[in-house]
Amino acid sequence: MKFSIFQDSLIGGRHVNQDRMGYSFTRESLLMIVADGMGGHMRGEVAAQLTLQAAAVSFQQAARPALVDPAGFLDLALRRAHRDILRYQHTHDMPESPRTTVVAAIVQHGHVWWAHAGDSRLYWVRDGSVIARTEDHSKVQSLVRLGLISPEEQDMHPERNKVLNCLGSPFEPHIEINGAHPLHRGDHLLMCSDGVWSAMAEQELISTLCGEPLNTAIPRLVRRAVTIEGPAADNATALAVRWEAVQPEAALSSGDLPNGAITTTISLVPEDEPESEAISDDEIERTINEIRAAIERSSGH
Q1: Are 167 and 119 in contact (CB under 8 A)?
Q2: How far is 206 from 211, CA to CA, in rounded Å?
Q3: Rounded to two decimals, what is the model's pTM?
Q4: What confidence tens digit (pLDDT) does each residue in 223-261 have?
Q5: Contact, 46 vs 266, CB < 8 A?
Q6: How many C-beta neighbours within 10 Å does residue 164 have?
């Protein structure tokens, strides 16, 4: 596999960054995930962190070096995350469980599969046009489906943040899975929290994504989202991959990995420790800078 990948996150106007993002890859398979801890519930950042950990551990166990069933993997990994969140609630005697939305994707053998719960989104972009994106599990999306509002109205609707599905709720989540879809050279996959997609029109989102290398486009996207929303800005997080990129940017080749090795940006903290006031914003920024430096080193820049 040859691809370019980059991720970035800003706290916006909030006191805590409850978003988490990351990716792992072997010689033959790539996992990407974005989780947006829900601020209306206790410790959303813990739910998001547990979700990334569950997915990454599951990937390390199952990708040998390819997944036998990518769609089945996504379903099992996210349900494992849901159970881990409920276990965390029980262990810490919390009156309610932490909750998070999530979007995750697997790229393997030139195809992509994705899964989501809630309103964190994936956009599949080819030649500057969106050819598919996830459908939010939200009140507003339900209004669109019923024909009560137009699709153009949903991203600016005052109730657009009311989510109907997530990990960590008392009910079993609906994990919506899509794939397998063949990727073409130059295709983009953008995964982001609602702090990014709700701040700007889709045309601006996609033109920024496709207009420059990912290592500048993604930071520009999250900064733009926070700037537009001002003091009320939500956490803004984006992760994107450009498949078999030919642009002069930081590119990775999974063929450089030894057989059986896994590269990851996801911190595999023991599951009984994520409550250590989660991860500080300074730690998040330091991790992002380390990831950027590692990518630049791998590309020889």
Answers
A1: no
A2: 8
A3: 0.85
A4: 999 999 999 999 999 999 999 865 555 567 787 787 788
A5: no
A6: 16
DSSP line for the chain: -EEEEEEEEE-TTSSS--EEEEEEE-SSEEEEEEEEE-TTSTTHHHHHHHHHHHHHHHHHHH-SSS-S-HHHHHHHHHHHHHHHHHHHHHHTT-SS---EEEEEEEEETTEEEEEEESS-EEEEEETTEEEEEPPP-BHHHHHHHTTSS-HHHHTT-TTTT-BS--BSSSSPP--EEEEEEE--TT-EEEEE-HHHHTTS-HHHHHHHHHSS-HHHHHHHHHHHHHHHHGGGPPPEEEEEEEET--SSS-EEEGGGSPTT--EE-S----TT-TTTT---HHHHHHHHHHHHHHHHHHTT-
Looking at the DSSP bridge assignments, the partners of residue 79 are none
Q: At what angle do helices 202-210 and 214-229 cross, to 10 degrees?
A: 150
